[in-house]
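COMPLEX REQUEST
Ligand: 2-acetamido-2-deoxy-beta-D-glucopyranose
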Amino acid sequence: MRTCPLLLYFFLIFVVRVKSDPDPLQDYCIAETRNPQTVFLNGAPCINPINAAPSHFTTSALSKPGNTAANPLGFNVTLTNIRNLPGMNTLGLTMARVDIAGNGLVPPHTHPRASEVTILIKGSLLVGFVDTTNRLFTQQLREGDSFVFPKGLIHFLYNLDSKASALTISGLSSQNPGAQLASSATFTTKPSIPDDILKKAFQINGQDVSRIRKNLGG
Ligand SMILES: *[C@@H]1O[C@H](CO)[C@@H](O)[C@H](O)[C@H]1NC(C)=O
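STATUS: Structure written out below.
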């Protein structure tokens, strides 16, 4: 069978391109987070493996509910990261605890570097994502149900119950997933995106732009 070398070449490029965080080159790389950072690497440097301890691989960061009262949308996300769980450095994953108050909303957002899979521990959630053809996929989750949000796609989580809070736990496929909220990435940037751009993009007038900015605390 003949294969077209050019096609193979593009296929290989594609395979390399869609990889998540690079694979670790050692068993582990306990993040060195104490010193003020002077050298910037793609990630954090490792401590000497001789000094690795079980405590580097454990955290209670997700054991307590986040406070949802301070957030007008009623949600609080607690993440593992290289500071509270330094043993996860270079391993390409993050865990998140998401507390959502009654009728609270984690508004449409993306994680540019990670896919996310969530399991609903408590409550009932309406979750969904939008693919690049603008198709919406939504699902109502009951306790124990899981849902996956593909990498980089806009998604949301809404607590359908007006009184009971919800708790969901997510795994993300990067140690630094990043998060961009669609609303704040357009209306509360620093400096502001020029009004004319927002007016045209959203087909609204200048008053609308100011009102939305103010409502979002921008
Ligand atoms: C999330 O909850 C933690 C723990 O209660 C709190 O310290 C933090 O300020 C909360 N974050 C927001 C954005 O409300």
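REMARKS: Strands lie at 75-79, 94-100, 105-110, 116-122, 125-130, 136-141, 146-149, 155-159, 166-172, 180-181. The CA atoms of residues 69 and 182 lie 22 Å apart.
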